[in-house]
Amino acid sequence: MTYEECMVEAINYLREQFPLEVKKQIYDMYLEDPKEWYVEHHFFWGMHIRNELRNHGLKDEFLPTGNWDDYYVEAIEKAVLIPEIIKAIKELENG
Fold first, then answer.
1. pTM for the full predicted model
2. Which residues of 7-33 are buried (b: 16+ CB within 10 A; e: fewer)?
3. What Å distances lie between residue 53 and 12, 29, 46, 90, CA to CA?
4. Longest distance between any two alpha carbons in the chain, whole Å
5. Fewer C-beta within 10 Å: the chain N or C terminus?
């Protein structure tokens, strides 16, 4: 599997796995601090997501640096911060 194929699979997998409420939480954290929204959560759910990607068959060996720690945030952002999900989040907020 190439790096590109791995990232596409990771993004699609996360998009399917995250409920809308979780996507909204991520979106809200991103709006508060776009550069470091994930930092305080790394040791709780960040590590869980990284390990879940590995368990899904997306091994570190497919990544240029050989470690999901360097790529899971990008995968989350690309899974959540897209127009159709942001629209669904806005609709959730507006009832």
1. 0.84
2. bebbbebbbeebeeeebbbbbebbeee
3. 11, 21, 11, 28
4. 43
5. C
